[in-house]
């Protein structure tokens, strides 16, 4: 809680512009290093390990641009016909979609996705540098090291696999800055207004990250206040008044999305993922990530539930360096700095413990050892969070610790400074990021892009892509995203889709409860086995088409599977057995549905 070389003392000098420029250039270079494989062909390549999430975010960006014509940004019947999808309980990224709508209209959602992902990475690294150098007392060079570490740490690189929400850390930086300003002299209305607007934007872009940021700020503020009671009492009035204004402003902007989130149709409770699995493995803190120099050397450890959730993976040398740095800083600190260090240390320990989830996991295996998260797992918001992601809060704490240690080293002997430089190389070089893996993906059929589909589907009618769109089979939702990205003209609805909705027990699950035809086509795509189709299955298929208000069923020449290759021939034979012989139209097979 401070804005100077020693929290609470004066105002830091502005870093030289050349340092600002160098950090910006470094952020751009690192971001392009990560995303370069997609820049070669934004429309023809996808992120290998998470092409399903990429397709979802492209759809969300297209839908947000579409809503600028007057559609509801938080609920749609274009997905999951006829029930629709509640986007307020999903990561809707509405603000990003509105801001970048011109890019979507001009270049399409794939380009918009890549532009935002790259800018998120650039802005996050630079934002942490800005916060450390302008408001948390680090020198420009030290802040550059800490900021670039935060922006391109293993957790950020892991979530760069298509998570536009988690890579938008620059927005969380601004929220932290807004919280720090609450105790400073000035207009409570102005400070509260700014923070309230930032919170509203944060909810739109990354509600889970906003929740974690609020928790972290709360822990830091409480621990700091306990250590600096006199300063805390003097600032309490300004802090509370400004916070109240921020709450009113944020509530005004979020009234409708919050109502939709907690009371709207197609809402759910809990989370469809196993929180015991999506918890941090104890050994993951000292392991190396996949997309790093150590990973290229084969030193990575597969301790995350999937490659997009390597939230810590700092490596043992960095953990040891952080521990030694904390001790050295503590010994050299005056009372204001010790209060700040205490707040950082307690927050890191709290979030590391919570990230371990309800039961301790060691080396990939669960144990029966209960952890603190077990006490929170049934509480609102905690019941819908993935515990491992709480560890992302630790990264900026480590970054600030590194920055302060570099500044402390100015008082050391030359030999000690050389030792620190060597330790930094040993700790940081192995986790230096390497490019994201990409894979080719199918183009959207010309039948869709040319508008030929409009001859077969009335306004508001439904196209049934075969197999039905989901997180594992994203093509049909990509077709719709392409049409939504057009500034005018009719759009079509699709059944199912990739979204979070209520399952049979009201808990979250991906997509709808599958209908019989959905299940048959999915099984054929996944296994390659053509099920035995009887008149009973055909009757159920006709009922499903009526339920979906289908106009046509469409099969493209190629089907992209996000996690496994699709058995195309089995899908076509199953669809033909269900719906009869198709007709060839341009580059797709079409089954007409009798009205």
Explain what you see.
The structure is a single chain. The chain has 595 residues and is α+β, with helices and mostly antiparallel strands. The chain is 52% helix and 8% strand. It contains 20 helices and twelve strands. The strands form five sheets. A four-stranded mixed sheet has the order 7-10-12-11.
Key words describing this protein structure:
595 residues; 4-stranded mixed sheet; two-stranded antiparallel ribbon; 12 strands; disordered N terminus
* Helix content class: 40-55%
C-alpha-based Rg, rounded: 26 Å
Measured between the Cα atoms of the first and last residue, the distance is: 66 Å
Annotation, overall tally of beta strands:
12
Give the count of helical stretches: 20
- Spatial sequence of strands, sheet with the most strands: 7-10-12-11
Mean pLDDT: 94
Overall 3D geometry?
Answer: elongated
Largest sheet: 4 strands, mixed
Poorly predicted runs are 1-11
Going by helix content, strand content and strand pairing, the class is: alpha+beta
The amount of beta strand, in percent, is 5-15%
């Amino acid at each position: 809680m401070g804005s100077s070389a020693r929290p609470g003392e004066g105002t830091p000098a502005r870093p030289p512009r050349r340092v600002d420029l160098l950090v910006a250039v470094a952020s751009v270079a690192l971001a392009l290093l990560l995303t370069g494989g997609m820049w070669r062909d934004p429309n023809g390549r996808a992120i290998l390990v998470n092409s399903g999430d990429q397709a979802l975010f492209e759809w969300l960006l297209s839908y947000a641009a579409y809503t600028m014509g007057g559609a509801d940004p938080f609920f749609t019947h274009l997905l999951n016909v006829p029930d629709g999808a509640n986007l307020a309980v999903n990561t809707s990224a509405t603000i990003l979609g509105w801001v970048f709508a011109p890019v979507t209209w001009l270049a399409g959602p794939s380009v918009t996705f890549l532009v935002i992902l790259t800018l998120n990475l650039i802005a996050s690294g630079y934002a942490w540098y800005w916060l450390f150098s302008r408001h948390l007392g680090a020198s420009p060079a030290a802040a550059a090291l800490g900021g670039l570490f935060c922006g391109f740490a293993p957790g950020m690189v892991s979530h760069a696999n298509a998570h536009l929400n988690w890579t938008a850390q620059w927005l969380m930086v601004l929220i932290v800055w807004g919280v720090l300003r609450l105790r400073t002299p000035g207009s409570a209305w102005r400070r509260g207004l700014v923070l309230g607007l930032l919170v509203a934007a944060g909810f739109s872009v990354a509600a889970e990250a906003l929740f974690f940021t609020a928790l972290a700020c709360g822990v830091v503020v409480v621990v700091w206040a306990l250590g600096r009671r006199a300063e805390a009492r003097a600032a309490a009035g300004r802090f509370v008044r400004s916070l109240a204004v921020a709450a009113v402003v944020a509530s005004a902007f979020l009234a409708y999305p919050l109502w939709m989130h907690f009371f709207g149709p197609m809402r759910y409770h809990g989370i469809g993922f196993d929180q015991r699995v999506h918890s941090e493995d104890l050994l993951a803190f000292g392991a190396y990530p996949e997309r790093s120099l150590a990973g290229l050397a084969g030193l990575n450890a597969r301790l995350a539930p999937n490659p997009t959730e390597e939230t810590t993976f700092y490596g043992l040398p960095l953990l040891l360096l952080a521990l030694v740095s904390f001790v050295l800083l503590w010994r050299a600190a005056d009372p204001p700095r010790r209060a700040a260090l205490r707040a950082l240390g307690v927050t890191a320990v709290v979030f590391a413990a919570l990230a371990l989830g309800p039961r301790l996991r060691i080396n990939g295996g669960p144990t029966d050892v209960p952890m603190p998260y077990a006490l929170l797992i049934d509480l609102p918001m905690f019941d819908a969070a993935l515990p491992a992601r709480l560890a992302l809060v630790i990264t900026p704490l480590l970054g600030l610790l590194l920055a302060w240690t570099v500044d402390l080293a100015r008082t050391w002997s030359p030999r000690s400074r050389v030792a620190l430089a060597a330790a930094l190389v040993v700790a940081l070089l192995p986790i230096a990021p390497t490019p994201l893996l990409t894979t080719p993906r199918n183009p959207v059929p010309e039948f869709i892009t040319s508008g030929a589909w409009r001859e077969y589907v009335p306004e508001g009618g439904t196209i049934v892509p075969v197999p039905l769109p989901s997180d594992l089979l994203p093509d049909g939702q990509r077709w719709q995203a392409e049409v939504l990205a057009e500034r005018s003209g009719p759009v079509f609805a699709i059944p199912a889709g990739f979204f979070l909705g209520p399952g049979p027990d009201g808990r979250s699950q991906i997509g709808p409860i599958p209908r019989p035809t959905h299940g048959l086509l999915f099984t054929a795509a996944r296994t390659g086995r053509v099920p035995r189709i009887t008149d009973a299955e055909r009757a159920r298929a006709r009922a499903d088409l009526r339920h979906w208000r289908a106009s046509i069923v469409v099969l493209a020449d190629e089907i992209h599977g996000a996690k496994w290759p699709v058995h195309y021939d089995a899908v076509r034979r199953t669809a033909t057995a269900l719906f009869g012989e198709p007709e060839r139209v341009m580059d797709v097979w079409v089954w007409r549905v009798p009205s």
